[in-house]
Model the fold of this input.
Amino acid sequence: MSTSSRFAVAVHVLTLMAWADEEPLKSEQVAESVNTNAVVIRRMLCELAESNLVVSQTGSMGGSKLARLPEKITLLDIYQAVESRGVFSLHRHPPNPDCPVGVNIGSVLNDVLDEVDSAVERVLANMTLRDVVSRLQPCTGATNSKSARVTANGKRKQVARLQSVSVRN
Amino acid sequence: MSTSSRFAVAVHVLTLMAWADEEPLKSEQVAESVNTNAVVIRRMLCELAESNLVVSQTGSMGGSKLARLPEKITLLDIYQAVESRGVFSLHRHPPNPDCPVGVNIGSVLNDVLDEVDSAVERVLANMTLRDVVSRLQPCTGATNSKSARVTANGKRKQVARLQSVSVRN
DNA sequence: TGGTCTGTAACAAATATAGTTACAGTTGGC
DNA sequence: GCCAACTGTAACTATATTTGTTACAGACCA
Done:
């Protein structure tokens, strides 16, 4: 479905900043960890800044850091900052309005897809950046996090989630 | 996120067949309602047939119809038949393995994304094709459907879900 | 046997995302 | 003030994915 890795990259970026604590990170540094171009990172940082998740400073000695504590940033905040559309789309071209099904299916589907979106948002709202950091380094403190919730994940997809298309070739 | 309308089209196609009752529909007829090419429909019907949701017959007087009653087909069945991947993807290229965050973020994200996928599947499993048909024509019987559930959908997305990109221009 | 279908291959078009180059503007240190 | 090191952003290319189209082999019924 989704051909976009924007959410994954955004979580990665913000996790780096949570990890770096208050130290501002340069787009080059972040790009190196994400393994992409620094401009891609800067574009994303602009979106994250618009949603007040990071603050950036231009000029020498500049860089970006979190706008608030990791426990105050949910994955839903991140999702909404970088993904514009819901998880499914409707028809590319509108269905035939002369067909009794075609004329009405759109609104029925809209309701269904809104339900799906809400379910996704509920899951993401229940996890914070702090939880992600805690799972990254379980030895570190952060005892009052909700990271246990993450452990309770369901079954695996049949189709393995690959980290890269290059792996497929 | 999703650039694919496959799920929406698949629900539309199967709704037409539920509407047509036992009458087999030709791919041309279906294509006319969906407003697309008949080959696109036939491709999708092949996938739906592989998942045992429809049966098709070749030759003159041929066509496709549901393989079982609409109340025995959930939206999850349809989703799994036509959408191969989960709702989010990971990085296009693997992150830097020399970075403590980069090397571990993939597995943390996988857990999160599995949770999201499960939530989506739970929603879709709770609605059947019969429910969709009921919502399409509220005057018709089908009193024992779960269609009331659909009404309880959450808030609307900020970005309206458009039926067509052409509307944007 | 001919007309009407499906199944499928091969390709073109449209769309979206990611990556790249280039450069204006901001900032801090000297 | 000037230089070096940053961000912000435009313009473009590359890549991937989905959708649409044409063409045709094979199935089936009358």
